[in-house]
Design a protein that fits this description.
Helix content: 25-40%
Largest sheet: 9 strands, parallel
Number of strands: 24
Number of helices: 14
Strand order of the largest sheet: 12-14-4-5-6-9-10-11-13
Distance between the termini: 94 Å
Strand content: 25-35%
Structural class: alpha/beta
Radius of gyration: 26 Å
Shape: globular
């Protein structure tokens, strides 16, 4: 009788403990809600602390997640004025022995990020990193038969993990779930706001896996026929995309079941014109032609994010168009530091921007570093507002093209006229002939007659549109300023030479302007 009563008391105590723990977790989630991606009217927002958040980030070099390297990483993040650090965590570091996990590096990252009030995006370097398996633990690399690579069409192994290796997939999913379980417990402050699952997955050197198991699955008939019968000459590539996406879905789903942070996969891009063959790029990854396959096969991923290293306005702007979709939020998690020209385009269309290799001087020149730092210094204090305005569809952007010096933007009752390059500045520009076409502009519609604008190498002017077209007009007030504590702070009112010669001109350093316009 006493033993029965004791057992009942023990059960009640356990139930009470579980109830109290659940209540604590619910209180934490209410106070610090889990970041999530939301969509409305085809636009997207990353919610952090319950409010839209814009990633003005920097991604560390590949081998920087070690205690001795972090001081240099944090120094650059501070110099950049970035609000987010993207940094890898390595499977080989976290699971040095099978089933034994070491999260000390993750805890160090959390601690140091909080000290600096910087958010983290963790990059899970595991089965895939740039198409290879080099971040797998050593104990797996010693067992290539159990954890095999892709087999090429010629029967020879390829330096890329097979998406059909179930033992590899199971080990990856267990390690990733362990990481997410640790984050849930160690990070109630939501320092980590997103997780990248793998890195540029896919295969170089073979369109797909031609192993015995892959061949069996490839030839297996489905409701509409075999892969070859349904997809013809692109069947190999589409099969590989489905296989890689399904593998990553298994890993991501295991992590989300434990802790549902927003998760994404980054993309090694193909040339965005002309539908080149898969032998020309990393086959199997979420390139633009297989986005629907990835969306169907990997629903646990909230977005597919392009890594932009392409040269030239036309391909870069095309990539932004291809990945800024009603069903896909635009995030550029990697790009060259000299792509700052497209920063405003990404802000206007997406949720974040991040140059790669920020702590590697060989990858980020001083001039490029300074340009990013100047942009972030102006934009970071208003990042929350920019994220909200973008979600509301209030942001309009333009970049200077090689053969186009003027752009017009429809703002409803007004049309913004943007003149890129030197134009006719009051103060002559000695480097006018050598300056690259790197002008850019971003406008925010605050009201029918009120606009914020930021830009470089751009002259801003306006003209009445719609029913007011052709009417005389003038600047009622033009203010130069900055944001602080969510409010616009005026530095000065511009007039005279600053506004009378075709409108305010902004040079190589970004400037924030607030316009109030009036027709007469």
């Amino acid at each position: 009788m006493k033993q029965s009563l004791l057992r009942k008391c023990a059960v009640c105590a356990l139930a009470l403990t579980a109830l109290m723990a659940g209540s604590v977790l619910q209180a934490q989630e209410k106070e610090n809600p889990i970041p999530r991606l939301v969509t409305k009217d085809g636009r997207h927002a990353l919610l952090v602390d319950g409010e839209p958040y814009l990633i003005l980030g920097g991604q560390s070099d590949n081998s920087s997640t070690w205690p001795a390297m972090l001081p240099g990483v944090w120094q650059v993040i501070e110099e950049m004025n970035a609000n987010t650090l993207e940094i890898p965590v390595y499977w080989e570091q976290i699971e040095p022995e099978e089933g034994t996990y070491d999260f000390s590096m993750v805890d160090l990252l959390l601690e140091q990020a909080r000290e600096r009030d910087v958010r983290l995006v963790l990059l899970w370097f595991a089965t895939w990193k740039n198409g290879s398996n080099h971040y797998m633990p050593a104990w797996m690399k010693r067992q290539p038969k159990k954890y095999p690579n892709v087999v090429g069409k010629d029967g020879k192994p390829v330096d890329s993990p097979s998406p059909h290796a179930l033992a590899t997939r199971e080990a990856d999913s267990k390690a990733f779930a362990a990481l997410m379980r640790h984050l849930k417990k160690a990070d109630p402050q939501r320092t980590v706001i997103m997780v990248q699952v793998e890195n540029e997955p896919g295969t170089w050197g073979s369109v797909r896996d031609y192993s015995e198991e892959a061949e069996r699955l490839f030839r297996q008939p489905h409701s509409k026929g075999t892969w070859s019968e349904v997809f013809g000459e692109r069947a190999d590539e589409y099969f590989h995309a489905w296989s890689v996406a399904s593998y990553i879905e298994y890993v991501a789903a295991a992590g989300r079941a434990v802790y549902p942070l927003p998760m994404y996969v980054n993309v090694a891009l193909r040339w965005p014109f002309g539908n080149p063959p898969a032998t020309n790029y990393e086959s199997g990854g979420p390139t633009d032609n297989v986005i629907p396959i990835w969306k169907a096969a990997a629903p646990s991923l909230c977005l597919l994010a392009p890594d932009i290293y392409l040269q030239g306005d036309e391909p870069v702007l095309k990539v932004l168009e291809l990945y800024a979709r009603p069903d896909n939020a635009l995030l550029v998690p990697e790009t060259s530091s000299n792509r700052v020209k497209y920063l405003y385009e990404i802000i206007g269309k997406g949720i974040g921007y991040s140059p790669f290799g920020i702590d590697n001087p060989a990858k980020v020149a001083v001039r490029q570093h300074d340009a990013i730092a100047a942009e972030y210094k102006l934009l970071a204090p208003m990042a929350r507002q920019l994220a909200r305005w973008g979600f509301e569809g209030r942001i309009f952007t333009a970049v200077e093209l090689e053969k186009e010096s003027e752009r017009c933007i429809d703002l409803g009752r007004w049309e913004a006229v943007l003149q890129f390059g030197i134009g006719k500045p009051v103060v002559p520009q000695p480097d006018a002939d050598s300056r690259p076409a790197d002008g850019k502009a971003l406008l925010v519609k605050l009201g029918d007659n009120e606009f914020l604008a930021v830009g470089t190498h751009c002259r801003f002017t306006f003209r009445p549109a719609g029913k007011d077209a052709g009417k005389p007009w003038q600047y009622l007030r033009v203010e130069e300023g900055y944001y602080e504590d969510g409010e616009f702070r005026m530095i000065r009112v511009l007039n005279g030479d600053q506004t009378d010669w075709g409108g305010p001109y902004v040079g190589d350093k970004p400037v924030l302007l607030r316009f109030t316009l009036i027709t007469r």
